[in-house]
Q: What sequence folds into this?
């Protein structure tokens, strides 16, 4: 069986379906690590699914993948297997609690933290293959502005930047916004402020960031970058409790401040960018996805066990390692 002819064009260019369409692929990114990208990706997906959307989350934090830990899933097949030809995309697509689908990176993906031509091509093919079948695809990227992170974001129609009120996180968010504007020609980005100390602080943080952008960034084509604030999520012990229980806060504590913040963010996102519509997922279509252009080293058998075996907090503490632009 052969697959459809796949293009490698990112963004809102014509895709494998041959249509120019409205935004469907959203990268969730941040300058600093540990600010809540994975938390937002998973809970936003659940909130959007609750609104009736068919959502896919791709774990593209290739070096520090931990979506599996947050969702308490132990996949038999991961993106790593798909990329190395050891599994099919259909096998790697899992349904997560919250009724959305996920593609988990797998612990062997460390070799993909370098942006080789193989990684580029496979990632582009992956996005073009899945995009017609979902209303929305959320890419949970790594932190910082490494080439692999920037490439993952370049696959997205829209970037959602996460910042926290902490000065270092704000400075790193600014650096990310600037690079995305200068290198990818993005003139607007969405912003989520996470871990605010009180309601309304997010608005203040967004205004502060916007004023620094207006003062210091001029894009090569002229003009500057407009932030589109999606909302805020307050710092809430329910989030940490949910992580401890390896559940989504949207499901475990739906009435919590954090869950309500994320429902509001989902509503605003769906208002700004209504679900794009999707093709049905006929059985077998995604089975023969990716020809492997060149052999890729597989995981060393003596390597440490997958992170799913670790306690959630231990693993998440590791996720705080940043690719700090400074
Ligand atoms: N709104 C919040 N309130 C309380 N704790 C939070 C909140 N958002 C994130 N956290 C904590 O920060 C940790 C790291 O979040 P995570 O989503 O893994 O960050 P990232 O993916 O950006 O590295 C979470 O495990 C959680 O304990
Ligand atoms: Mg993460």
A:
């Amino acid at each position: 069986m052969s697959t459809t002819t796949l293009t490698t064009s990112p963004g809102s260019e014509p895709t494998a379906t041959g249509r120019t369409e409205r935004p469907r692929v959203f990268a969730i990114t941040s300058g600093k690590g540990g600010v809540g990208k994975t938390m937002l990706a998973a809970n936003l997906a659940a909130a959007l699914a609750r609104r009736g959307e068919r959502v896919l989350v791709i774990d593209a934090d290739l070096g520090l993948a931990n979506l599996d830990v947050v969702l308490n899933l132990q996949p038999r097949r991961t993106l790593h297997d798909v990329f190395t030809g050891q599994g099919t995309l259909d096998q790697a697509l899992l349904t997560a609690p919250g009724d959305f689908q996920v593609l988990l990176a797998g612990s062997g993906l460390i070799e993909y933290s370098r942006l080789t031509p193989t990684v580029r091509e496979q990632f582009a093919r992956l996005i073009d293959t899945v995009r017609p079948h979902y209303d929305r695809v959320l890419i949970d990227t790594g932190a910082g502005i490494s080439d692999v992170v920037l490439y993952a974001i370049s696959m997205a129609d829209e970037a959602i930047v996460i910042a926290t009120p902490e000065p270092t996180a704000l400075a790193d968010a600014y650096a990310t916004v600037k690079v995305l504007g200068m290198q990818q020609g993005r003139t607007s980005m969405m912003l989520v402020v996470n871990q605010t100390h009180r309601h309304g602080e997010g608005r203040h943080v967004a205004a502060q960031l916007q004023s620094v952008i207006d003062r210091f960034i001029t894009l090569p084509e002229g003009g500057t970058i407009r932030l589109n604030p999606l909302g805020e999520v307050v710092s809430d012990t329910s989030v940490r409790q949910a992580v401890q229980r390896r559940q989504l806060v949207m499901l475990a504590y739906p009435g919590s401040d954090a869950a309500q913040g994320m429902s509001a963010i989902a509503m605003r996102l769906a208002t700004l960018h209504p679900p794009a519509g999707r093709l049905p997922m006929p059985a077998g279509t995604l089975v023969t996805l990716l020809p492997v252009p060149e052999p890729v080293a597989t995981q060393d058998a003596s390597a440490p066990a997958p992170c799913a075996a670790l306690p959630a907090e231990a693993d998440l503490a590791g996720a705080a390692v940043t690719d700090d632009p400074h």
Remarks:
- Residues 30, 33-39, 194-195, 233, 235-236, 239-240, 243, 258, 316, 319 surround adenosine-5'-diphosphate (ligand 1) (CB under 6 Å).
- The chain has one domain: 24-271.
